[in-house]
Amino acid sequence: METVRVGIVGIGNMGSAHSKNIALGNIKGLTLAAVCDINPRRIEWCHENLGGIPTFDNYTNMLNEGNLDAVIIATPHWLHPPMAIEAFANGLHVLIEKPAGVMLSSVQKMSEIAEKSGKVFCIMWNQRTNLLYAKVRDIIGSGRLGKPKRLVWNITNWYRTQSYYDSGVWRATWKGEGGGVLLNQAPHNLDLWQWIFGMPSRIRAFCYCGKYHNIEVEDDATIFAEYENGATALFITSTGEYPGTNRLEISGDRGKLVAEDGKLKLWQLRGSEREMCFSDEHGFPTWETDYSEQDFSGGETAHSGIMQNFANAILNGERLLAPGIDGEQELMLSNAAFLSSWTDDWVTLPIDCAKFNRYLANKITESEKQSDSKTEASIASGDYSPRWSVRW
Fold it and tell me: What is the pTM of this model?
């Protein structure tokens, strides 16, 4: 195989950008072979912008008739697992948009079927291509900061107006999206948290629904997590603070690092704080640290990088930067946060999926009917917006 014939389902903001990017030949080894959407206006956009690419309004028909090797799934969250499973059943490779789904149980089923299929399964964790976060992960993994103590991430520059939430009847509802900022805006950061620092053992979270907007899901959340090795993590996110902050700080017994404004600041002790704490006779010591600073502004290949990696994995066996199964860990964090907030209690990981599903089902049943006056969001331009990349 010299090229991968790919079909894209869901020609909204992300799907239109992916399809245009591939159609322009920007991803070596990927050929856009078909697109699918149930909205006639989006199909019309495809005819006008994609140069005669075959279009479908039925996903199953595209899989059966599109002469495909792979699919990119850019539909609403709930549809990712069933659509991926159908694609694997048709012998296709799959790249899904984030998050992997809404309920961890359905995502786990998707992962199991993907493994049995033997096909390449990837998820669009595009912020993993950011060189700053890759460097942070390398520092933590190498042990340069010693024994991990704490991660604190204040990620509040996901601001959204009420008009954003009013742009579609599915937005900001338990039935339509399955959650708010934790499921729509912050999954990239939740993924990077566990990618860099690992998965905690238990979580206590506070999710505030409609704190800043007229919505039924959370627009402000704080998660506190504990690790088996004694480390802790604090994750704060919101769509109601402007201008907002994106600041990641990690400390260990041999120093700390701060990632903010595209820069990595690193302080390294010349010994272990834990050892010096009990050997130094001074109550207020001033130990020397080695300080360094690096600028990584603009250092990411983003969505194009993930799609190129996906193509290379299919054609050449290249290792995936964002394996599809990694969608489970991120969703485990958000599902646990919701469950903790709903039950007003700690949640141990791995979570009780059946319990989470029951609570979510109740939320959906109690969901307020959305106004029929809401209008659908405008048809996307087919270009990548800065809001989908790392913002400092």
Answer: 0.95
